Amino acid sequence: MPEPLKNLLHEILVGDMADRIARNTPTFDKSRFMMLATDGLGALELMERSALIRDALFATLPGDFREAAAILTASLPTAGRPGLSGWMLLPVNQFIAARGLDHFDLGLDLLKALTPHFTAEFGIRPFIHRDQQRALAIISG
Q1: pTM passes above 0.90
Q2: Distance between CA atoms of 44 and 42, rounded to whole angstroms?
Q3: What is the pLDDT along the chain (141 residues), one digit of tens a residue?
């Protein structure tokens, strides 16, 4: 029997996320993030797990989206350095969709930056819903 998709978001992945964010942000509270992002994780389905991790990002990243976006951008992979990638970026998509709409261009730029590392499909939908022409112009440029 194949492994359930929900198991792609697990405690080890959350720990890797915490390490990769903290590497660029000395003030990031890894312990709090881990506690919040893993509390009850095993009982949840895939999107619920992602929402739990997203909520942990809400609680531990700066409230100013510009600051949070800078941290997330710095936490993406670069040549020779691992960063946030793959399934780690599903809750990041949800974070951007929730917090980035009021910073439309910056939010879409961040989604565009993470696209080489994971789909931005889940994060981009609210932007397209809010202003389809503007969103498409930004992501195609």
Answers
A1: yes
A2: 6
A3: 788 999 999 999 999 999 999 998 999 999 999 999 999 999 999 999 999 999 999 999 999 999 999 999 999 999 888 999 999 999 999 999 999 999 999 999 999 999 999 999 999 999 999 999 999 998 887
